[in-house]
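Technical note accompanying the year-one report. For the benefit of new consortium partners, we illustrate the data format agreed upon in the data management plan: each record pairs a sequence with a structure-token string. No post-processing was applied to the example shown here.
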Amino acid sequence: MQTEEIRHDEWSKFFDSFSREHAGWLATIEIIGTDVGAQEEASDLPLVGITADLKGTGKNSISIIVGEAADDHITHTITEPASVRFEKAEGVGEESLQIETSGGATTLLRLRASGLPERIEGSVPELAERKTSSGS
């Protein structure tokens, strides 16, 4: 797995691009607190987007929006984020973000592609064209 730390001054640009590239991917949001352990907030809902509200006063926030229908729409807001890490699995179609707060809590966003395997770049080898013969 490859893990990349995203610099604070690149968060807004990164999340804009990440949201466009991963819109519709199935998202699971897990909150890992220092005192309560792991809590799953959403499971296999389509990613709508991620935004960073950077005020410059230390009261920054990051919002993760999942679920397209009214009955499954969730906005998870992380206040006072301290670090953002992007992790790409070796297999195609699985990625995650780890967002840690200044208080030590971590939000883990796991994503997996929801499209057909042949639509996920690199997941299916190029198939040779089949030639059929007629009149046999």
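Partners are asked to follow this layout when depositing records. Residues 118-136 have pLDDT under 50 and may be disordered.
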